[in-house]
């Protein structure tokens, strides 16, 4: 991740499971910082797996994917 460079202003959504170490959260913040047009949602109580398989947590994941797709399709910013 650190060697990835910048994504410029490409829309980027980072979804983080809340059940992670503080170091992991910091790395997720760094990932979100790769784009000037990013959102970062921490889903409290979620695990990495529940972001896919739990109904509530997976809805957060799906909504973020849709936000990025809509931003790209409409040439709009995620952040505003």
Notes on the structure:
The chain is α+β, with helices and mostly antiparallel strands and 80 residues long. It has one domain. 42% of the residues lie in helices and 15% in strands. The chain contains 3 helices and 2 strands; from the N terminus they run E-H-E-H-H. It has a two-stranded parallel sheet. Strand 1, helix 1 and strand 2 form a beta-alpha-beta unit. The longest helix has 19 residues. The chain is flat.
Outline of the structure:
With 80 residues, this protein is α+β, with helices and mostly antiparallel strands. 42% of the residues lie in helices and 15% in strands.
Q: pLDDT under 50 segments (min length 5)?
A: none
What is the number of strand segments?
2
Helicity level:
40-55%
Number of helices: 3
What is the mean pLDDT?
Answer: 91
Strand content: 15-25%
Shape: flat
Counting helices, strands and paired strands, the structural category is alpha+beta
Q: For the report, how would you describe the main beta sheet? A: 2 strands, parallel
What is the total domain count? 1
Q: What is the distance, rounded to the nearest whole angstrom, between the alpha carbons of the first and last residues? A: 25 Å
Instruction: Please give the radius of gyration in angstroms.
Output: 13 Å
Any chance you could write out the topology, listing elements then pairs?
Layout: E1 12-17, H1 22-32, E2 38-43, H2 50-53, H3 55-73
State the main characteristics.
15% strand; 80 residues; alpha+beta
């Amino acid at each position: 991740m650190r060697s990835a460079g910048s994504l410029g202003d490409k829309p980027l959504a980072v979804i983080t499971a809340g059940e992670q170490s503080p170091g992991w959260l910091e790395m997720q913040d760094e990932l979100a910082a790769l784009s000037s047009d990013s959102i970062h949602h921490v889903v409290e109580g979620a695990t990495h797996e529940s972001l896919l398989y739990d109904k509530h947590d997976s809805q957060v994941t799906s909504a973020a994917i849709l936000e990025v797709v809509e931003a790209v399709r409409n040439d709009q910013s995620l952040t505003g």
